[in-house]
Amino acid sequence: MAGLTALADSFHLTPHEALSGVFGSISLAAWIFLLVPQLVENYKQGSAEGISLAFLTVWFIGDITNLAGAVWAGLVPTVVALAVYFCFADLLLIAQCVYYNVSNARRARKASELSAQSGSSEEEPLLSRRGSENIGLPGSRRRSSAASRRRTLSGGRRDSLSKILEEESKKRVWLRNAVSVVVICCAGAAGWVIAWKSGVWRPAPVGDDKSPTGTPMGAEILGYASAVCYLGARIPQIIKNQRESSCDGLSLLFFLLSLLGNATYGAGILFHSQERDYFLTNLPWLIGSLGTMVEDAVIFLQFHMYGEKPLASAVVE
């Protein structure tokens, strides 16, 4: 904080303006890399079953209305360009999810057809023959009981090892994600310093935010619509996680970057100005950011409750 104050003083910049710029830059960095972790997670899994298409679709509608509102309001080109980037990134993730869902469904259908064609008639005589061979053999029940005890003991050892591997996996995932968040924060802060020193970024006086004619009513309606979409987008994902009791296939870093982006976005607005008119103008976006942060917290709780149990058990087996 002292270093930031000294930097601000040397460039005739107030600490609040500097913090607003830093938070805004960190938010921008978080939004740019937001969808990358989920794209990578889907690619590694070869599946997109973990993420809700309804979640992505509503979010995409929110980005579309956000873009339309930014163009209608005549916002600066950087804001419009960022909104366009969000829409293309959404389409890329949706296309990846649809591709994996369709291809995996087709593969499962073919496997089911092949197994149905092979039939079970060839296996039934073999099973009946094995059963008749065991009937009446001395010691067969004792051997079966001993084998059952060995399987029980082996299963207990696998469960213990599974729990150990699961805990170690959770720690590694959280550590890796924490490092990624720190890197994003550092990159955003460094980007702001470079932009400020090069003259690309300058603090905007609060009075300059108001146009002579005001914001068009249609642009305001689109802004509220995008905020509603962002608020409602995560609800299908939360319901899906709850119904399946699993967060497998979801990238934790994806939601961490979302939380970081919303938190720093709101902080950037509040540090820019606390004037009543400015606050009321940005209230829809602040409500949207706060609401999505609450929903992200619910998803973090689901990650803690459900974890990645299928992955741990698969490693043990």
Please provide a written account of the structure.
By secondary structure, the chain is an all-alpha fold. It contains twelve helices and no strands. The chain has helices spanning 2-10, 15-32, 36-45, 53-73, 77-118, 123-134, 140-197, 217-244, 252-272, 276-281, 283-306, 309-316. It is globular and about 80 Å long.
Q: Which of globular, elongated, flat, extended, rod-shaped describes the shape?
A: globular
Radius of gyration: 27 Å
- Class computed from helices, strands and strand pairing: mainly alpha
Number of helices: 12
Q: How would you characterize the largest beta sheet?
A: none
SSE succession: HHHHHHHHHHHH
Estimated helix fraction: over 70%
Question: Would you count the extended β strands for me?
Answer: 0
- Our estimate of the beta-strand percent is under 5%
Unreliable residue stretches: 310-317
| pLDDT averaged residue by residue | 78
For the termini, the CA-CA separation is 51 Å
Please give a quick description of this structure.
This protein is mainly alpha-helical and 317 residues long. The protein has helices spanning 2-10, 15-32, 36-45, 53-73, 77-118, 123-134, 140-197, 217-244, 252-272, 276-281, 283-306, 309-316.
